Amino acid sequence: MAPPPPRLLLASHAAVRAAASARRGRLAGDHHPPQVAALRRGDWVKLICGASFEDAADVRNLSLVYTLAGVDCIDCAADASVVGAVNEGIDVAASIVPSIQRPWVMVSVNDDCRDLHFRKAEFDPEDCPPDCSKPCEKVCPADAISLERVMIEGKHSQSDPSSGKLEGGVITERCYGCGRCLSVCPYDRIRAMSYVRDPTKTAELLKRNDVDAIEIHTTGKGTDMFNTLWSNLGDSINNVKLIAVSLPDVGDSTVNFMNAIYTTMQSHLQGYNLWQLDGRPMSGDIGRGATRETVSFAVHLSSMSNRPPGFYQLAGGTNSYTIESLKKAGLFQSTTFAATSGVTDCQQAFIGGIAYGGYARKIVGRVLRKIPAQFGHARIEDHLDYLLEALQEALSLVGPVKGYPTLPSL
């Protein structure tokens, strides 16, 4: 049972809900699900937990905080335990603020092992020189590398690092494949191990009543593997409300590639579809420059009249600078007329929303890391000061998209 919400938490959410209600009121007569209405307005926000990030404890707490902040969708690894962690976080958020809107739960899969989102770092710490300065540990944004220097039996010189050895390595469930450790290893000992999600297991996940959407990552290098995955998913695809395709900008061939994929999907497309424009994958926590590629991708597509139907959403390099960049490009909540799956000849925002991944996890994760270690896999709702601090961070990211009023510091 979650603890009773403190007054400040309820007050903050009263303002959040009022702002959300005011925005919904602008589209009177809109009978679409609230998540779809958000895409139409251009204020949809998705939290990306990470297609390869499988730390259930962190996923649970992230989902709780961002549900309270008002995201429309939470995207996670296509793994049953991770899906369970997302839904647990959502359930706790709903117990704290019963009127909160439940976000859709999305699972991410890939059609090609070359996709950067589906890989893990790997190395044998026994191959590492004991006096290594451990730059991989320092650069990892997910705290997924832990190395400890231990003494070898019979060695006595604690002051001589070469007399010991390193133990530990990559914490597999925390690694989400950003690759930053690969380039900093001075001994070139770290490898990237790529994989493809099992479509049979994915199909089973899609039959669950707590999975609402699927995202298929594709590299843009051809449609054969996408077609194979689509065929393998079979009728399970009909169980979800939204099908998203995440792809990079591959230049002049991008729109033709998208149209070919849409042709494959069209015969089994019973819900809505979304295109995730993946500008610079897993880089949002780096800084202002990271968001340029995804905004440039949006600008490129906005000039193409033959782009396929569906909602469009930014990802890859998204952070606190993305809204500013979209506004400068004239694309923030700018409307257009488009024939969209399930919505025909309607006025809607060209960019339906933004997905936040590494940056969203970073700003809340630094609060989660403050919870004393003796609590182990801590439930953030048991530490209300940290919950409020994490919520403030999440609202700073979600609020500018949703048009929430500026809230005082909690």
TrEMBL record:
InterPro entries tied to this protein: 4Fe4S_Fe-S-bd, 4Fe4S_Fe_S_CS, Fe-S-bd_prot_LdpA_C, LdpA_Fe-S-bd, PSI_iron-sulfur_center
Gene Ontology molecular function: 4 iron, 4 sulfur cluster binding; metal ion binding
PROSITE patterns membership: 4FE4S_FER_1, 4FE4S_FER_2
UniProt entry tagged with the keyword Iron: yes
Any single Pfam family the record assigns to this protein: LdpA_C
Signal peptide residues on this chain, from the entry's feature table: none
Presence of keyword Plastid: no
Keywords: 4Fe-4S, Iron, Iron-sulfur, Metal-binding
Domain 4Fe-4S ferredoxin-type: 119-150, 166-195
Stored PANTHER family: PHOTOSYSTEM I IRON-SULFUR CENTER, PHOTOSYSTEM I IRON-SULFUR CENTER-RELATED
Name of the protein: 4Fe-4S ferredoxin-type domain-containing protein
Native species: Oryza glumipatula
Taxon lineage: Eukaryota, Viridiplantae, Streptophyta, Embryophyta, Tracheophyta
